[in-house]
Every structure is written in structure tokens, then in C-alpha cells.
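hey m, so remember when u said the C-alpha cells were messed up on ur end? i reran from scratch. heres the input so u can diff it against urs
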Amino acid sequence: MSQRHRTNLRDRSNLLGTADYTTPPSSGRSSPYGGSGLGRDVPFQAQGQRYADDLEGQNDEHLEGLTAKVKLLKDITIGIGNEVRESTVQLSQMNDAFSETSGILAGTFRRMNNMAARQGCRWLWYILFLIVVFWFFIIVWWFRR
């Protein structure tokens, strides 16, 4: 009894109630328009149109998925382009700021060297005195803790 029951379950035409039903081709090599060469002689209109509609629906679903992915990639590349433009503007502003700062520092060092040349070595003794006083305050603070 179980053998007869399994045979009935595998016979799809008995399950579906139609005698002309065949399963879709199992590989992508067979044609959806009938005449697959596997011994199925189903009329072109009944089998082929159904498979063509199924394939068209699948193609539409895949096309929608690909369109969404392409849109996502397009948005990403547009975002990258905007980021590059903003970074370029920011880098050029930083370059201008560094050039201005370089000019200011060069002028400051030039004036400091002129001042040092006019005063001789007195400025060196002032800096040494300030370092000794600073060191003294650090030592006192350290021992008072």
C-alpha cells in the first residue's frame, strides 16, 4: 500500500487533476517554448506561453533588483564626488592658511634676529635667568607637595 501511495504522490498529473500538465524544465538549457527534446510534446501555446510569462516575471524582478543596486552605486559615487570636491576646497583653504602663517613666522623670526643682533648677548642672559627662576619654582613646588 505504501508503494502505491508513493507512486501517486510522484505523479503530478494525478495531484493536479489535469492530464496535460508537465513539470518545468530542470536546467537552463531547455527551451521555455516547448520542444525541449526530452520527449515532451506539449503544444507551443499552453506550455511555452506559461514559461515565457514566468521567465518574464523573473526577469522583471531581477531587473528591479539590479536597478536598485545601480541606483545605490550611483548615489555612493555621487557622494564620493561631493566629498572629494569639499575636501579639495578645504585643502586649498588650509594651504592658504599655512602659507599666511609661514609668512607671519618668517617675519617674526627676522625681527627677533634683528633685535638679537642690536642688543648683543644680553638677551641670552635674560633667557638664562628666566630658566633658572622657573627651575627654582618647580623644585620648591615639588618639595612642598
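this time it looks ok to me. Confidence is low (pLDDT under 50) at residues 1-9, 36-44. if urs says something different then somethings off w ur setup not the seq
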